[in-house]
Every structure is written in structure tokens, then in C-alpha cells.
Amino acid sequence: MGNPSPSPDDTAEDGALPVPVTRAGRDGLRALLDRPRTAVIGLDFDGTLAPIVADPDQARAHPGAVPALAALAPKVASVAVVTGRPAGVAVRNGGFAGVPGLEHLVVLGHYGAERWDAVTGTVTAPAPHPGIAAVRAELPGVLDRAGAWPGTWIEEKGRAVAVHTRRAENPDAAFDTLRAPLTDLATRHGLIVEPGRLVLELRPPGVDKGVALLDHLRTTGAESVLYAGDDLGDLPAFAALEKLRSNGFPALLVCSGSTEVTELAERADLVVDGPGGVVALLEGLAAHAG
After folding, report:
1. Is the pTM higher than 0.85?
2. What beta strand segments (E) does the chain contain?
3. Radius of gyration of the chain (CA)
4. What is the pLDDT of residues 205-240, one digit of tens each?
5. Whole-Å CA distances, 4 to 170, 192, 223
6. Which residues of 75-86 are buried (b: 16+ CB within 10 A; e: fewer)?
7. In this predicted model, what pLDDT tens digit does every residue of 72-131 receive, in sequence order?
8. Quick one: which of 39, 127, 135, 47 has its CA closest to 85?
9. Distant-in-sequence, close-in-space partners of 25: CB < 8 Å, separation ≥ 6
10. What residues contact residue 33 under an 8 Å CB cut-off, 6+ apart?
11. Which residues of 207-221 are buried (b: 16+ CB within 10 A; e: fewer)?
């Protein structure tokens, strides 16, 4: 497909692409560079494409994210933003709608329960889990009984409900105190608790970023994949791709570096410096793929 693509070692020499620290990661990068049209680029949103902020409603994609994606997306099979947010919110906060070059973009919201396609500009989704309404009604009382930490607040996510402790006077203590009562509440209504960076999300079981990503790989017929994330909710995607790699499927696991969560960095092939580092990686891939 045109001129031979540079190897990861070659691209590191000119500073365009970092070199993964693992052999499997280097193989995944090489497969993506050599055969981009059969590759999927999977990306978390908050903390990966957008900096983490105190108010999630104010989160916006890094200024370089959309231009980098618009340059890369036409060269690959698909770009999938996989997020716990509602798909429409991620589209709005990312500025993804109506951008030339992003016709191959999809947003898999609520861990894959919702799907937004750039081609149609529409969101498709099944009916919400009934437990969400019950949890929503009981949650304020549960928080009061747990101590009502000042600064703790509830985020309504449609198909999930999240409790944030980042604004509390002692965010870590509030997080630890609330974890057990929120888990009990979720369990009573057939839900699970997904912990993240100073946030506890109550959501339906059976959907996670690993399930969503694997389904998208099957749908697109992908032959390689890159996935970048920053938080505990991205671990299922890492686990799913590690299993695929054990069967010979090329995959590159990228961590958008954070001092708050280290688990992803310990399992990643490549750690970059937050959303700015992710954007630089996407720009390098766009320059060298194909």
C-alpha cells in the first residue's frame, strides 16, 4: 500500500512516534502502520481526549484532538470513542459532529449501550435498565445516611448515575466512605458500581468497554487495534485486547498518563502524557500510516 511504512524504531528516531515498551505493543503498532485500512482506533473520552475537570459538564476535547482525528480517520477502518458518557454528550463535548474527515467516527456511549454514527448523525439505543430510576430516587437518602460529605454531588447520565467526590474537602476519604453503601444500593436494584477517578458510577451489568470494543472490532472486520484510556473503566478494554493478542491479534494498549490511577499504566504498552500526548500520538499515526 504505497511506500513501506516506517517501523516503530524508525519513527522514534525522528520524534514522530514513541516506541512501545513491549514486543506485543511494537507488533501492534507495526500492524497498524502497515495496514491502516483494516485498523480500528479506540479512544476513551474523559482523561484521554479531554482533560479531567472538576465539572464534567465543562469537559471539552483537547484543541488538537478533532484535527488529529480528522487527519487519521480517513486512513483507518474506524475511529471509535468508547465512553461511559451518553453518546450525544460526548459528541457535543468533543465537537465531533459535521467535521469533514470524521465520516468513519462512531461514539459508543454508556459503555456501548448507545451508538452515534457520524454518517447518520443519530443515536441508537435500547430501553434503559429499570434499576436506574429506582437508584436515582433513593440515592440522595443513601448519601445523607452515609454522612453527606460536603462537595459530593450526583451526575445524571441517563442510563447511569454517578457520584463524584472530587469537590469534597477530602475526596479520597469521601470516595472510600461511599463505596460500600453505593455498592449495596446498586446490588439491590440489579446494577453494579464502576469506580473511577474520584467517581463511583452505578450502571447496568453486562456492558463495559471491553464488550463494546470487541463488538465493534467484529462489526468492522478489523485486523488490528489501538486502544487508549486513562481510568479503571478502561481496564475491561485492556483485558479484552490482551486476550485477543494471546490468539495473535495485533493490538496496542496506550495509557493517557495519570498520577491518580496507576493500574492502566502498569499494563500499557505505551504511556503518553495525558490528552496532549494522545493528540501527539494520533498526529504521528496520521503522518506515518499507509
Report:
1. no
2. 39-43, 78-82, 105-109, 114-117, 122-124, 153-156, 161-164, 192-196, 199-203, 224-229, 251-256, 270-272
3. 19
4. 878 999 999 999 999 999 999 999 999 899 999 999
5. 54, 47, 18
6. bbbbbbbbbbbb
7. 999 999 999 999 999 999 999 999 999 999 998 999 998 998 999 999 999 998 888 889
8. 47
9. 252, 253, 268, 269, 270
10. 5, 6, 7, 8, 11, 285, 288, 289, 290
11. bbbbbbbbebbeebe
Which grid cell is 167?
A: 469537590
Distance CA 138, CA 119 (A): 39
Q: Are 101 and 74 in contact (CB under 8 A)?
A: yes
Size of the chain, expressed as the number of residues it contains? 290
Q: How far is CA 290 from CA 7, 16, 28, 166, 216, in A?
A: 12, 15, 14, 42, 22
DSSP 64: T
Amino acid identity of residue 13, one-letter, is: E
Report the amino acid identity of residue 274: G
* Phi and psi torsions of 251, nearest 5°: -150, 145
- Residue indicated by cell numbers 465520516: 103
Cβ neighbours of 33 (radius 10 Å): 23
On the 0-12 / 13-18 / 19+ scale of CB atoms within 10 A, 119 is exposed
